[in-house]
Amino acid sequence: MKHNRLIYVIDDEADICTLVCDELRRFGFETRSFTNGNQAARAIRERLPDLCIVDLGLPDMDGMELVRQICAHQGIGIMILSGRDSTPDRVLGLELGADDYITKPFEPRELVARANSLLRRLSPGDTSAPDTPRQASFAGWTFNPATLTLTRQDGEPEVLSTSEARLLSSLLRAPKQILSREQLLGDHVDPFDRSIDVRMSRIRKKIEQNPKNPCIIKTIYGAGYMLAADVSWS
């Protein structure tokens, strides 16, 4: 099955790039590989990929900085592939907007499966239905899923990461309902069980007047999260 999806693999080890690219191409993906961050950054400016697989140990920059730069481009999925397996690195990667985190050594077939899952989650839904809502208004904010933008009524739009936008969309489509972490994760096999909490914290910092005492997105301890505001779609 031909995916026609473009994946950039960024790793300073050429053997890792070859291994990952060969496995992805076996399953129909188009790939390009880069052994440093500046090469990848230039390529991204020329052509946006669907997914970037990023090693953190790059020779010319910290991989976290490259993740930050990629997040500035709308709609690119980010998978970190790294030998760093500490909790602070995982948390920081997710806070910067990464969608998945895989540690080395890794199983190439699992990486492909998780890339498939990630791209499926980040793909736009079926837009053929005439009544598909375009944007949501809630608590003085407007969210546009098509552009991943969150706008206050009197402010400039702010672009969410794809993972943040997906999470917020799930809450907005079920206002005043408790959604468990499993429901919010969907079919994603998550590498780190605090990923939902980290992303929720990032969203709260954007929309809550006091993120430490949130009024819009409530934590229901032992159950999950709930959007407490009314939502209208247009």
TrEMBL record:
Residue span(s) of domain OmpR/PhoB-type: 133-229
This protein's UniProt keywords: DNA-binding, Phosphoprotein, Transcription, Transcription regulation, Two-component regulatory system
Cross-referenced PROSITE patterns: OMPR_PHOB, RESPONSE_REGULATORY
Keyword Zinc: no
Name of the protein in its database record: DNA-binding response regulator
Domain Response regulatory per the UniProt entry, residue ranges: 6-119
DNA-binding region: 133-229
